[in-house]
Amino acid sequence: MLFFSYFKELVGKEVTVELKNDLAIRGILHSVDQYLNIKLENTRVVDQDKYPHLLSVRNCFIRGSVVRYVQLPPDGVDIDILHDATRREARGG
Amino acid sequence: MSYGPGLQSLIDQTISVITNDGRHIVGILKGFDQATNIILDESHERVYSTKEGVQQLVLGLYIIRGDNISVVGELDEELDANLDLSKLRAHPLKPVIH
């Protein structure tokens, strides 16, 4: 549940999601769910010339199981809060 | 608290699906469930090649199993109409490797 809560805090920020098929999609985080499925708005594929497949798509739903990385804005991350939450989760689990 | 994927807003809209084997399928979203299985009406597959333009294969009414889905995108009809698919050259998408 930690990352679900963490991503909820990031709604509205711009992120880049790199998928397991090497596709990378940049967009504003609209919502996230318990499976860490991600909905992005104002999407642009990172290498549009190589991947023109999603040129007509501006909003998308990305299945959590296919995400490799979620690249976050550095100023969107409060490392201390993350540390504390992780410590608490590690203790409880 | 166990609600399904937020695909409700896309029902009856034209969507663009990227599958785990790298296929690109376009159709109208008619239904979905908690496992992201989807029902796609009037669907067609867009086959990309580096040698010739995009080929469109008519599929019809399809169910796509959720565990084979990577991306569900809302297709903007205006943007799509501006695309000249016969001029588009691209490598096919790579399959997903877990």
UniProtKB/TrEMBL annotation, chain A:
Top-level taxon of origin: Eukaryota
Pfam families per UniProt: LSM
Entry similarity comment: Belongs to the snRNP Sm proteins family.
Protein name: Sm-like protein LSM2
Keywords, comma-separated and alphabetical: mRNA processing, mRNA splicing, Nucleus, Ribonucleoprotein, RNA-binding, Spliceosome
Alphabetized PROSITE patterns for the sequence: SM
Sm domain residues: 2-76
Lineage, uppermost ranks: Eukaryota, Viridiplantae, Streptophyta, Embryophyta, Tracheophyta
Function of the molecule: Component of LSM protein complexes, which are involved in RNA processing.
Entry GO MF terms: RNA binding
Gene3D superfamilies in alphabetical order: 2.30.30.100
A Gene Ontology BP annotation from the UniProt entry: mRNA splicing, via spliceosome
Predominant place of localization: nucleus
Compartment(s): Nucleus
Any GO CC annotation of this UniProt entry: U4/U6 x U5 tri-snRNP complex
PANTHER family xrefs: SNRNP CORE PROTEIN FAMILY MEMBER, U6 SNRNA-ASSOCIATED SM-LIKE PROTEIN LSM2
CDD domains for this protein: LSm2 (cd01725)
TrEMBL record, chain B:
Boundaries of every Sm domain copy: 2-78
Example of a GO biological process term: mRNA splicing, via spliceosome
Highest taxon of the lineage: Eukaryota
Repeat keyword on record: no
Keywords: mRNA processing, mRNA splicing, Nucleus, Ribonucleoprotein, RNA-binding, Spliceosome
Cellular component GO terms held in the UniProt record: precatalytic spliceosome; U4/U6 x U5 tri-snRNP complex; U6 snRNP
Record-level Gene Ontology MF annotations: mRNA binding
Pfam families, A to Z: LSM
SUPFAM superfamilies (UniProt xref): Sm-like ribonucleoproteins
Entry keyword S-adenosyl-L-methionine: no
Family that this chain belongs to: Belongs to the snRNP Sm proteins family.
Role summary: Plays role in pre-mRNA splicing as component of the U4/U6-U5 tri-snRNP complex that is involved in spliceosome assembly, and as component of the precatalytic spliceosome (spliceosome B complex). The heptameric LSM2-8 complex binds specifically to the 3'-terminal U-tract of U6 snRNA.
Oligomeric form and interacting partners: LSm subunits form a heteromer with a doughnut shape.
The name this protein goes by in its record: U6 snRNA-associated Sm-like protein LSm8
